[in-house]
């Protein structure tokens, strides 16, 4: 009987951890999705709350930190009109979450509308009660690229 109760306790503990992780994954994935909409809407206030002050952003044309990314979005020098998300994967390790999105990005860049296939890597860290983005990297890929889960 004691072995049975111990087994039930272990199963319940594993179930709780797995459910908590699923809740965390859902929370971060929703935040990632919201971020794309905030970028399209040029909502720099919401993005400033999300981006860590030292976050790095890697684009095809350069790398910069949060203040520059926010200014680029605010000014419209890159207008992230729409990110069509085709595939997503997430890994959680402690207070760090990494999200990979395979997207088609429709953007207005240097006076031209462009559509580009990317895999975007986003790194988040739980700081106090909120998730903060530490890094966002755009990697140009073919439209047949798949994210391994």
Automatic annotation (TrEMBL):
Transmembrane segments: none annotated. Keywords: Signal. It comes from the Bacteria. Residues 1-20 form the signal peptide. InterPro entries: DUF4440 (IPR027843), NTF2-like_dom_sf (IPR032710). Residues 29-133 form the DUF4440 domain. This is Nuclear transport factor 2 family protein. It comes from Lacihabitans lacunae.
